[in-house]
């Protein structure tokens, strides 16, 4: 609760800060960006609505056991690959993602696989992509960014294999 | 590009970036259609499994979530608009543009790492950077850095749930990744779109 409040204060504080800078450039600049931002907001709301409401349904048909199953058994690079898929397919927010990672660590999952999972989740978690990235960014950028990021959970796992456990 | 009129000694890309690019609003694109189809199928599956009540449960839960998110979305949009208005476009395209080199990727990564807030700040700001002259490479470095080494999510969620040791170790492993991702992005982008499409790039 207080963390959420802190985030909001920080967020609106930043808005106020950059708004003030814009205002000092002159009221026309300020008004123009205010209008621009409001138009963006109006345009984005339907997408966000689709993302929020939609990802709830998508999440509901992905059983959590499937995710943990993919993160569990295999070791080696096959395990890393299935951990990457699991990371991208994990529904819900950070609590669910990190909790699954913790459970996997405690139940004997390999460290490189869990690192690959967490990194893949951070890069590709479908709910964040649908809910935030696609509405705000040009679609071409999002797909490009995702495609380019594919090797990096594997790179992270490789580094983890080389430097060992925490 | 090669034969400029002799009275314009300034670098071409600076001269070109002079008119305000204006933020391009996306029409309903394929991404939205695909997502909508995916959602419709998922909702139908939920309905078959849990009946109307299950569908409504998820709907009410998500609607309240949506209501809670909206103010932050507004803040994010305003932040993006103000930033794209006050950032000097020439400087941005010089320090984060296609020719910014490793330094541009490093700046993008550093910026992503220190950016406060959540996705509702990161993506609008990234979008604003893109609009004022940052290239895909630097923007990818920024987004990947925000998600992998940004402190916000690490402090709020990863450390409490996964522990400090794992989190710090995971962040150390992730340190090189944003710049590598940005470099790969730039490398692929230049080959995928050999000639900069300049103005009508995003339409």
List the defining traits of the structure above:
heterodimer; A: 166 residues; mainly alpha; 85% helix; elongated; B: 203 residues; 2 domains; 74% helix; 0% strand; disordered N terminus; disordered C terminus
Walk me through the structure.
The complex is a heterodimer of chains A (166) and B (203). By secondary structure, chain A is mainly α. Helices cover 85% and strands 0% of the residues of chain A. Chain A is built from 9 helices and no strands. In chain A, helix 5 (94-106) runs antiparallel to helix 6 (111-124). In chain A, 46% of the residues are buried. The mean pLDDT of chain A is 87. With 203 residues, chain B is mostly helical.
Q: Looking at the structure, what is the overall shape of chain A?
A: elongated
Structural class of chain B: mainly alpha
Low-confidence stretches of chain A: none
- DSSP strand count of chain A: 0
Instruction: Pick out the low-confidence regions of chain B.
Output: 1-22, 199-203
Structural class of chain A: mainly alpha
Fraction in helix of chain A = over 70%
The overall strand count of chain B is 0
Total DSSP helices of chain B: 9
**So what's the oligomer here?**
heterodimer
- Helical percentage of chain B: over 70%
């Amino acid at each position: 609760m207080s963390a959420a409040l802190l985030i909001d204060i920080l967020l609106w504080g930043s808005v106020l800060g950059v708004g003030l800078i814009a205002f000092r450039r002159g009221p026309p600049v300020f008004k123009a960006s205010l209008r621009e931002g409001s138009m963006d907001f109006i345009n984005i709301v339907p997408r966000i609505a689709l993302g929020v409401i939609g990802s709830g349904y998508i999440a509901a048909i992905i059983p959590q056991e499937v995710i943990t199953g993919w993160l569990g058994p295999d070791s080696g690079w096959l395990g890393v690959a299935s951990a990457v898929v699991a990371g991208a397919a994990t529904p819900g927010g950070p609590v669910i993602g990190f909790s699954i990672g913790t459970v996997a660590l405690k139940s004997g999952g390999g460290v490189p696989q869990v690192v690959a999972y967490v990194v893949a989740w951070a890069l590709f978690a479908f709910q964040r992509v649908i809910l935030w990235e696609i509405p705000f960014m040009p679609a071409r950028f999002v797909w490009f960014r995702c495609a380019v990021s594919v090797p990096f959970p594997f790179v992270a796992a490789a580094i983890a294999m080389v430097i060992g456990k925490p | 590009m090669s034969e400029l009129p002799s009275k314009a000694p300034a670098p071409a890309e600076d001269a070109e970036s002079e008119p305000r690019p204006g933020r391009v609003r996306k029409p309903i694109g394929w991404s939205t259609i695909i997502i909508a189809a995916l959602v419709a199928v998922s909702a139908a599956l939920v309905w078959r499994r849990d009946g109307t009540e299950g569908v409504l449960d998820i709907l009410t839960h998500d609607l309240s979530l949506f209501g809670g998110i909206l103010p932050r979305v507004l803040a994010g949009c305003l932040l993006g608009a103000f930033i794209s208005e006050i950032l000097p476009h020439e400087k941005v395209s010089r320090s984060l543009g296609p020719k910014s080199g490793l330094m541009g990727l490093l700046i993008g990564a550093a910026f992503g790492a220190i950016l406060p807030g959540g996705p509702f700040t990161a993506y609008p700001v990234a979008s604003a950077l893109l609009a004022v002259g940052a290239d895909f490479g630097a923007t990818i470095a920024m987004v990947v850095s925000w998600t992998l080494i940004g402190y916000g999510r690490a402090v709020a969620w990863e450390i409490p749930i996964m522990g400090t040791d794992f989190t710090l170790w995971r962040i150390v492993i992730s340190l090189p990744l944003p710049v590598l991702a940005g470099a790969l992005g730039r490398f692929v982008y230049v080959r995928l779109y050999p000639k900069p499409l300049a103005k009508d790039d995003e339409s």
